Amino acid sequence: MLNNKDKVDFILSIDTEEEWDWSGTFPTRDFRLDNIRLIPELQEMCNSLGVKTTYFVDHAVADNADSVALIRPYLEQGQCEIGAHLHPWCNPPIDEEINEKNSHVVNLDIRLVEKKLSELTDALQRAFTVRPTAFRTGRWGIDGPILKLLADYGYTVDSSVYPFYSNEFFTCQGASLNPYWPSFEDSLKVDGQQQRILEMPVTVGFNRANFELFNRLHEKLSSAPYRWFHPIGLAWHMGIFKKIYLCPELSSTEDMKSLIDKSLVRGQRVFHMYLHSSSLLSGATGFMDSKDAFNDIAIRITNIVKYLTSRVEVNFCTITESANRYMAQDGQ
Ligand SMILES: [Zn+2]
C-alpha cells in the first residue's frame, strides 16, 4: 500500500476529435464535429468533481472556430490543458495513401510525420494561443524517432503508449505502467540519459494484482490454437481474470474499481483515465452501445473519482502538471 506522502495523481485525458463510424473509412474532409458541443457539459461536471481535464485536440477540431470557441474558455480559466492529437488521415499535408497501415503514425515516413506535426502544432497555437506540450498519436503507438521529433518541437510529454496492447504494426507490451523516460532507441525501454520527454501511459491492468502473469495468460489464450473456443470470454465471464482499462467507454464502474484496487497494491502513482470526445454522442462511432452515452460515461467518471478519493489522497492535475510533479520529485 502507498503511504501518505505518496499522494496519487489523477489525470483525465480526452481525445478531442471528429466523429465517424469506426468500422468505416477514415474521414479526410467535411468533418462532423457535433460531439464537441458536449464538451462544456463534460467540463462543468469535471469542475464540480474537482477534476482537471487534458484535451488532446486533433487538426479537424483545432481548425474549426466554433469548436475552439467551445473549449477555449476552460483553458483561459485554468481548468484544462490542450495537448496535440495526430490523426494522420485528416491532418495536412496528406501525401500518403489513406488506409489502415497509414492510419498509424509509426508507419509513416518521419519527414511526413514532421510536416504533419508542424501543421498540427501551429494550428493549435493559432487556435488556443498556447503551444502544446503534450502529445498522443491517433490509434496509439510511438517509436524512438517520433519521440525525438516531439522533443525537438518542444513537447515534454507523450501519451501514446497503450499498455498490454499490440497489433500487427507496433507493440506496447512490456512498457512501464508508471511514467518513465523512454529511450529514443526503443520507446518501451527506460532511458537513463534522455530527460527531454516523459512517457505517461494510460492506466490498464487486470483484476488480479500479478498483471504480468495474467497478461502472459491473456496473450497465450488470445493466440492460436486456443482462439477457437473463446477462452478469454470464458475467463471473463467466470471472473477468473479480465483485462481492464481505466476508460469509461470500455469498462464498468465495478471493473475500474477492481483495477484501482490492484493498481494501488502494486504501488501505482498515476491514475490516467482516458476517453474519446466522440463517444459522448450516442451512436456517433458505432463503438459504444448505449442510448445515453454521455450519461453513462458521466456516471462512471463520477463513481471512479469518488472511489479513488475514498481510497487514497488524490492530486487532480493535467498531464503536463503531473509530468512536472514527477520530474520535480522522482525524475532521477
Ligand atoms: Zn483519435
Q: Can you tell me about this structure?
A:
By secondary structure, the chain is an alpha/beta fold. The chain has one domain (8-202, 270-298, 311-329): Glycoside hydrolase/deacetylase (TIM Barrel, Alpha-Beta Barrel), CATH 3.20.20. It has helices at 39-49, 59-62, 65-76, 110-128, 144-152, 211-222, 231-237, 253-265, 293-311, 319-329; strands at residues 8-16, 53-57, 80-86, 134-137, 157-158, 198-199, 204-206, 243-245, 270-276, 314-316. Strands 1, 2, 3, 4, 5, 6, 9 and 10 form an eight-stranded parallel beta sheet that branches. A two-stranded antiparallel sheet has the order 7-8. Helix 8 packs parallel to helix 9 (293-311). The mean pLDDT is 91. The structure holds zinc ion. Zinc ion binds next to loops.
| Number of E strands | 10
Bound molecules: zinc ion
Would you give the CATH topology? TIM Barrel
Largest sheet: number of strands, sense, barrel closure: 8 strands, parallel
Structural class: alpha/beta
CATH architecture: Alpha-Beta Barrel
How many domains is the backbone divided into? Answer: 1
Which residue ranges are poorly predicted, with pLDDT under 50 across at least 5 consecutive positions? none
**N/C terminus separation:** 22 Å
Report the mean per-residue pLDDT as an integer: 91
Helix-strand topology string: EHEHHEHEHEEEHHEHEHEH
By DSSP (H or I, 4+ residues per run), the number of helices equals: 10
Radius of gyration over alpha carbons?
19 Å
